[in-house]
Amino acid sequence: MAFIKFSTLDFPLKERIEAAQDIYAAIANIELRTLDKCVPMIETRLRLLPGVSIGWAKTSPIVVNRREKHIQDGNDDFSLLLNPLGHSAWNASIEKKGDFICSPGMGCFSYNDRPGSITFQGAQTHMLNITFSRALFEPLISRVAMDGYARLDVEILPLLTRSALELMVENPTTPINPLEQVNQLIDLASLAVGVHSDYGVHARQHGLKQARMKAVKADILIHFYRGDLSLDWLAKRHGVSASYIRSMFEQEETSFTDYLLEIRLQKAFDSLTNPDYASINITDIAYNVGFNNPSWFYRAFKRRFGFVPSDVR
């Protein structure tokens, strides 16, 4: 589960073009040239998983080519090319598929065994490249998905992007389970591109549900302090029903209410033991983490930790 990173900023100014060309030739068998003879500013991260690789890049204006001579390397993997964020689009041109302008939030399906080029013209353009072994991925997707530029599912694409970007952290706080991550990426990618109907049921029950649960939990961690945080509020934000979110928590043998309560109580505990919050009274801390009833907060806190808030402070 190797992690590789590269930045042209690590090289002297006059060596940056050559360094970038050498690195990209080595890791992806592609050639790179700059636009308007500009010195490139490129940052790249690469995560290698079993049968899947994820590359993230932020770049100044460049053109990347994979020509006939490059495809002789035998690499016939499939790739999803995504524009995850920012304000700049890039243009992909792939043999037998034509041209595709990829704006932020969009993506396309690509092949490594066909010549093509990608042009990055913005001052700071992003790309997320998720590459799958053909033997692993081709049996799962429909024939339609491989003809022309597949229209990626707008419901799935943000979840796929989020799952891939989480793996671009060099030293993640949560340990990575390679098999679990690969399965989730395959499920989401196949749903995004167009999956065989028999596999689609599996993908939606596994990878999609896991990704949605991660997204919902992340949203709760960000907005735990809101007094109006509810299942209906989350359901509207994530485009699902409240009962769907309730069911996801039940499958983890908990509930939305219990999960949110645990986060708020832990945040209150952290504040009470933090010297920076010593001047803030306990009732205000309770309100700050989302409780709207101090008496309920005191009872829940004692039940959870065995002490009243003042004892902890």
Describe this structure in words.
The protein has helices at 16-28, 134-137, 157-166, 178-193, 197-223, 231-238, 242-251, 256-272, 282-288, 294-305, 309-312; strands at residues 3-7, 31-34, 42-49, 52-59, 62-66, 78-82, 90-94, 98-102, 107-111, 116-120, 125-132. The protein has 313 residues and is of the alpha+beta class. Helices cover 41% and strands 20% of the residues. The chain folds into two domains: 3-223, Jelly Rolls; 259-312.
Separation of termini?
43 Å
Which class of secondary structure composition applies to the elements? alpha+beta
Lateral arrangement of strands in the main beta sheet: 1-3-4-11-6-9
- Count of alpha/pi helices: 11
Provide the CATH top-level class of the largest domain: Mainly Beta
Average residue pLDDT:
83
User: Based on CA inertia axes, which overall geometry fits?
Assistant: elongated
Number of domains: 2
Number of strands: 11
